[in-house]
Design brief:
294 residues; alpha+beta; five-stranded antiparallel β-sheet; DNA-binding; two-stranded antiparallel ribbon
Length: 294
DNA sequence: CTCCAGGTTCCGG
DNA sequence: CCGGAACATGGA
């Protein structure tokens, strides 16, 4: 496979592809194999350049959001030590521009699942119901279109280990395939209207809608609040406060983290997820399950 | 075995 | 508006 070069300053490819935004990239040699839409991709980073198969060059640059102004984004962050530490830890991580339906669908399947499980589900769905793609001697699979999933029975999706999410994914696929919810139309809507529209899909609440907006609709202000973020916000931004409601967290995050809140969120999320365990295991006399008390 | 995971939805204060 | 419970499955 012939590779072409993409200039990529301020990019950490491994960090970006492995940070729980997309779930299907597989390490291959020095690089990564996967699909961007229906295009098979091999990407490999060497210093400030990305080497990619020629047919995927344009799609990769866009997918990796190499045009996002990282310096400006970092400069926009509030200067508190928690976010600054996360930003250093995640330097070079970019918010991917993923296909809209793929973002919606994968995050419908993400509820109450570990990242590893979401990846497993993604691969199963791709292998069984996605378009088959080939790159050199490698076989890859696109994420299945809404139309393909809409034609299935709930049992088919349960067989992909989706559990109760099967009904939600099927229902969402039917609404998108029928045009009842028009994802193309969402692109032109204001953030709040787009969020409201996404929440009409079964299995899509505020958090999943925000993930879809951030990763699939270029809404960099979107700030999904999951269990990890909630822990960080409560402990670091509302210390010694007994009761902080979800509404208070939502309001605080929406205002405090500013126009690139989605970047801040992704950095806080990844940093917390990677470092939390070590902190727990090194806590003196740590008793299982009481890691919250400092 | 127990705990928990990038939640949503429904139900009773 | 708020807290609880049900919902499936598999790693740690």
């Amino acid at each position: 496979v012939e590779l072409v070069v993409l200039p990529a300053v301020s990019l950490d490819l491994k960090l970006t592809l492995g940070s729980g935004q997309a779930f299907h990239w597989v390490a291959q040699g020095e690089g990564w194999l996967g699909a961007i839409g229906n295009t098979p991709v091999y990407m490999e980073q060497r210093g400030a350049e990305v080497f990619v198969n020629q047919e995927a060059a344009a799609a990769s640059g866009r997918y990796l959001a190499l045009d996002h102004p990282l310096e400006e984004i970092y400069a926009s962050f509030p200067k508190d030590p928690t976010l600054q530490e996360a930003a250093v830890f995640c330097a070079g991580m970019r918010i991917l521009r993923q296909p809209a339906w793929e973002a919606v669908a994968t995050f419908i399947t993400s509820s109450m699942k570990q990242v590893a499980h979401i990846a497993q589900i993604s691969h199963t769905l791709r292998r069984r119901y996605g378009r088959r793609l080939s790159l050199g001697e490698h076989t890859l699979f696109a994420y299945p279109e809404a139309e393909a999933l809409a034609a299935l029975e709930e049992g088919d999706l349960r067989a992909c280990a989706l559990g109760y999410r099967a009904k939600n994914l099927l229902g969402a696929a039917k609404m998108v395939a029928s045009g009842e919810v028009d994802l193309t139309e969402l692109a032109g809507m204001a953030d709040e209207d787009a969020q409201k529209e996404l929440c009409r899909l079964p299995g899509v609440g505020e958090k999943v809608a925000n993930c879809a907006l951030l990763f699939g609709f270029e809404r960099l202000r979107s700030f999904p609040v999951d269990v990890w973020i909630e822990r960080v916000i409560r402990e670091k931004y509302f210390p010694r406060r007994k009761t902080v409601t979800a509404a208070q967290i939502r309001t605080f995050c929406a205002e405090y983290f500013g126009p690139y809140g989605g970047y801040a969120q992704q950095y806080l999320f990844h940093h917390a997820r990677i470092t939390w365990n070590s902190r727990r295991s090194t806590a003196a006399g740590s008793k299982r399950g009481s890691a919250k008390s400092s």
